[in-house]
Fold this protein.
Amino acid sequence: MRKVNLVENRKYSLRSLLLIFSLIFIILFINGCARWPDGPDGGNGVEQKLLVIRVGINGKINTEDGHYYIVFDTKDDALTPPSEDIENWKEGYYYIRLDDMGFCFGQWSSSCQYDSIGNAYDKYFQVNIDLEYLGNPERIFMNIITTDNDDDDDETIIYDYINNSYDLTINDTYLSSYNNIVDDFPSDSAGGPNFDITRVTVNIY
C-alpha cells in the first residue's frame, strides 16, 4: 500500500509541476505578444501614427559631397514652414539629416542621434518616424533641403529646397490615413542632379 501511495503521490506532484510550468509559459507568451517595440519607429503600447516621407532625387543620392535634410516645425503657434536657409532655423525644430554616416534625428540647437529610421537608395531616400517623436502634433509644417557637406551653419551652401513648402503641410495628423505628393521644379539645384529634389511623397499610417 505504501509503495502504491508513493507512486500516486509522485504522479500527482509531476502533474502539478507540469501545470505550473504550463501556466508560467502561457503568461510569458501573452506578455511577449503584448509588447510594443521601442524607438522612433516603434511605440509603447499606445496606438501609433507613423509618418513616412519619401524624397525623390533627379540624380543619385551622394552623401560624400552633401547632406539631405527634412526639417519640421510642430509648435502650436507655427504659421509657416521652416526656412530653406539653415541659419534661420529656430530652436526646437525637429530635423532628420542624411549624411555619409546615415540618418541623424534630433532637435535644432541640440545634438542629433544616428538611428535606423530610414533607408537610402540610388534615386530616393525614405524615413519612417513615429509621430510621438515629434511631440504628437496636430499640424506639421516641413521643408526638404539639400546642401553641401559643410557643418558650419553660416557657411552651408543650399543646393535645393521645396519651392512651395506650404504644399507639404499636414493640417490634421489625426486623420485615419493621409497621402500627399508634391512635385518640385526639376533641374533647379545649384549642386547638380544629385541634390535636385524632384518629388516628395508624404503618408501617415
Remarks:
- The CA atoms of residues 159 and 190 lie 5 Å apart.
- Helices lie at 2-34.
- The radius of gyration is 25 Å.
